[in-house]
Design a protein that fits this description.
39% helix; 12 strands; 7-stranded mixed beta sheet
Amino acid sequence: MLDVENWLSAHQSDGINLGIRELIYYQGKTSLVNLSPRKTVQAKLAGAYLAKTKGRGMEFDEARHYQAGDDIRAIDWRVTARTGKTHTKIYREEKERPVFVLADLSSSMQFGTQLLFKSVQVAHLSALLAWAARKRGDRIGGLIFNQFQHIECKPLTRQKAVLSLLNSLIKVQAQSIDAQQNDTFQSKQTAQGVTFTDACARIRRLAHPGSLVFILSDFSQLNELAKQHISQLSRHCEVVAYPMSDPFEHELPKVKISQRVALTNGVEQQHLILGEQSTESRYFEQHLAYFSSIEHVLKQCKAQVVPISAGLPLELQLNQFSRTSS
């Protein structure tokens, strides 16, 4: 059983607000994620990843018979002398693969019942991905948004790029919490200036072919247009989706005595009866179908899907995922 209070204290977090120390913590946890390419690198710029195409590069691939037009500087004189026929060295091209993080900190993400707000878990995972990309030497960029604004972080290789991303996460989360506390959260929840679809359109323009794109959201605004953007993005980039949810969104809390409780999303209100088996079963089945449909749609968009809970530490979940996927 996780001791929530001790875990939060050890990670210098309150589960709602964001601080730089809790994000820097993940600099030492980069082994939790594997950023190795799962598909052919398509970038045009030179970089650290070996592409399947052969051309000018640093990594020797093979020697073949000389063909008209081959660069004479690439002639393999040892093989030529041994075989008596002119051979040319062929190298595997090295391609660049920038990493982009699309982090959703909008109104539906400002919720959590056991450990962290979904938005805070998104920030923790974003930090982990950013530190892992820096360790591999990848350029890291991102797009951080809530319903009020978005911040674009241009892809860079230096540690400064990671810190810029982390500070953007802190800034946008602080704005969301401040709006919540000052009642502007409710009035603007239905009249959003920035939507998930807008964010998908922006990241699609930012991410050049060959990029690795992580989408961190609860996907509550996954409409047809957003699906199209993700599908188009997947045609030229590797896309990994992390659907974020809270344990309460999967099943109702267990209670010994039946009780009626009021629920609100800040705009609408409804009532549930806890401790009633039929209600619990119906709630579980409805939400299971909902999250299964999101995962199905994302897979149709050719994205790798890794569900994440805001109710458990990332270390536990990512270690479990690496064991089941290996």
